[in-house]
Specification:
N-(1-d-carboxylethyl)-l-norvaline Dehydrogenase, domain 2; globular; three-stranded mixed sheet; 9 strands; 13% strand; six-stranded parallel sheet; Rossmann fold
Length: 305
C-alpha cells in the first residue's frame, strides 16, 4: 500500500480520498477549509498542517481543485507541488481545467522531473461516494499505467484517452454534451407537464425510447420521479450551476480555439450564466429548468428556502 497526498478535500475530494483509505493506503490531505478537513478526517484521512507536510514522502499526489487558476497556483512556485514533492512521485490532477492548463501541467512536471497524468472524472458526488467514477486518463503510457493502480479504488471505469491533455479534452466534451442533455430534459419535462402528462408516466416513456439520457435517468427535474434528482430537495446541488457553467465555458473556449461551432453549448451556457447572475450558482445545475416556465414557478423549488 502507498502513501498518497490529496490536495483539495471538497465535495469530490473527501469521498474519493476515503476510498483510498478504505483500500489500505495512507492518505495525507490538505485543504484551506477547516470544515473540509474535519469531514475528511472523519473518513480516515490524515490532515496535514501544510501542503509541504501533505506531499512529503508521498508516492502519488492527487489534486482536486475548483478552477484552473487554483491548479496553476498549487503546482507552481516555491510553495507548489513541483518544489515540495519527492522526486519520483506520480502527480495526478482530477480537476476540470482547460486543455491549455492541463498541457502546462504536463510540460512543467516533465521539466521538474515528475510524471504527470491528467485524470479528470465523471460521475459527480454520487459516483465519488459510491466509488464508481469514470476516470479519463491522459499522458505517457507508462505514467498512465501507474495511475491506473492508484485510481482503481475510486473507479467504476478507467479509460486511457491518449497523450497529454486528452483526458481533460474528453471530460470537457462529455460535460458539454451532458449539459446540453440537461437543457433538453428541462424543456421536455415541463412541456410534458403542461400538456397534461403525468410526470412518472412520461419519464417511463422517455426511459425506454429515443429520449433516454443520463440526466433524464438520474437528474429528472420533477420531484418524486427519480430518487437521485435535486428536484427532491429544493434543487440543492449535486453538480452546482457554478461548476457546470465553468465546464461548459471551457468547452466553448476549446471549440473556439478548434474552429468548431457549438450553438447548443452556447445556449446552455447562457442559461447557466443567468442562474449564476441571479445568485443561484450554488444550487443544482438542473435549476435552469425554471427558465422554461414563464412565471418561474417550478415544482420542487421554493426560492425562500
Amino acid at each position: 500500500m502507498a502513501t498518497i497526498a490529496w490536495i483539495g478535500l471538497g465535495h469530490m475530494g473527501t469521498p474519493m480520498s476515503a476510498h483510498l483509505v478504505a483500500a489500505g493506503h495512507t492518505v495525507k490531505g490538505f485543504d484551506l477549509s477547516e470544515h473540509a478537513c474535519a469531514e475528511a478526517a472523519q473518513q480516515g484521512v490524515t490532515i496535514a498542517a501544510t501542503m509541504a507536510d501533505a506531499v512529503r514522502g508521498a508516492e502519488a499526489v492527487f489534486t482536486s481543485l475548483p478552477m484552473p487558476e487554483h491548479v496553476r497556483a498549487v503546482y507552481d512556485g516555491d510553495g507548489g507541488v513541483w518544489a515540495l514533492a519527492d522526486h519520483g512521485a506520480l502527480l495526478l490532477d482530477t480537476s476540470t481545467v482547460d486543455v491549455e492548463t492541463s498541457r502546462w501541467c504536463h510540460e512543467g512536471s516533465k521539466r521538474a522531473g515528475f510524471a504527470f497524468v491528467d485524470a479528470p472524472i465523471s460521475g459527480g458526488t454520487v459516483g465519488a461516494e459510491a466509488g464508481t467514477l469514470t476516470f479519463m486518463l491522459g499522458g505517457e503510457d507508462a505514467h498512465v499505467a501507474r495511475a491506473e493502480a492508484y485510481v482503481a479504488a475510486m473507479a467504476g471505469s478507467t479509460i486511457r484517452c491518449g497523450g497529454a491533455g486528452n483526458g481533460i479534452a474528453a471530460k470537457l466534451v462529455n460535460n458539454m454534451m451532458l449539459m446540453i442533455d440537461v437543457l433538453a430534459v428541462a424543456e421536455g419535462s415541463q412541456l410534458a407537464a403542461r400538456l397534461g402528462l403525468d410526470a412518472k408516466t412520461f419519464w417511463d416513456v422517455a426511459n425506454v425510447s429515443s429520449a433516454a439520457s443520463w440526466p433524464q435517468q438520474k437528474w429528472y427535474p420533477v420531484p418524486g420521479v427519480v430518487a437521485s434528482a435535486a428536484a427532491n430537495h429544493n434543487f440543492d446541488a449535486s453538480f452546482s450551476g457554478t461548476l457546470a457553467k465553468k465546464d461548459v465555458s471551457l468547452a466553448v473556449q476549446a471549440g473556439e480555439a478548434a474552429g468548431v461551432q457549438l450553438p447548443a453549448a452556447a445556449l446552455v451556457l447562457s442559461q447557466l450564466a443567468r442562474l449564476v447572475d441571479e445568485g443561484l450558482g450554488e444550487k443544482d445545475c438542473t435549476l435552469i429548468t425554471k427558465y422554461t416556465v414563464p412565471e418561474g414557478q417550478l415544482a420542487g423549488y421554493d426560492p425562500q428556502r
